[in-house]
Fold this sequence. Notes:
Layout: H1 3-6, E1 12-19, H2 21-37, E2 42-47, H3 51-64, E3 69-72, H4 76-85, E4 89-99, H5 100-109, E5 114-118, H6 125-130, E6 133-136, H7 144-156, E7 170-172, E8 181-183
Parallel strand pairs: 1-2, 1-5, 2-3, 4-5, 4-6
Antiparallel strand pairs: 7-8
Amino acid sequence: MSLAEHSGNVKVHVLRLSHRIGRDKRVTMHLLLTARAFGAEKVIYTGQRDEGMEKRIRRVVKFWGGPFEVEYRRSWKQVITEWRRRNGEIIHLTMYGLPVQDVISKIKSSGKDKLIVVGSEKVPRELYEVSDWNVSVTSQPHSEISALCIFLHEFFGGKELSKKFSDAKIELIPQPRGKKVIYRGR
Ligand code: SAM
């Protein structure tokens, strides 16, 4: 059973607010890698357009497989309005929110597509109001990367750990020691 089938063919996208090329270069790239590796199909980001970063993640998808997309948008409000119009759910990850372990089954049961929103700098108050869920991954300050990772793990119930990527040109065969890499075409 594919990850999508496991989650009732629910789309899981991520919205990363306020990317700052100088400050968030590595963090947002690691967020893209985490979103892709742990089951999200797309990351939309706002803030500063970073075409170099988009190129780098598309290169990862080319060699390690997809499907996975990245998209720049100017307005987070516009993204949320469009998501709502498609009857999707907005899940804002924040240390101030309800514990993920207490709400994840209710979130899963709605069967709606999920837009998981993470911040970088101070998050606008309005986002807390418009989100269907404000969810914490502990009530401690840490990072958008760890928060997203744990949320996806809770959402997919660990099935994301064995997700298969299509059209991969590189595949690693797990080894107790050493490395085994299969290359498929260019
Ligand atoms: N300084 C920003 C503020 O006060 O809004 C937040 C910085 S924090 C490193 C960046 C993002 O990580 C937050 O917007 C949130 O999405 C996520 N995050 C950090 N700790 C979290 C937690 N305990 N639970 C859920 N999300 C968390």
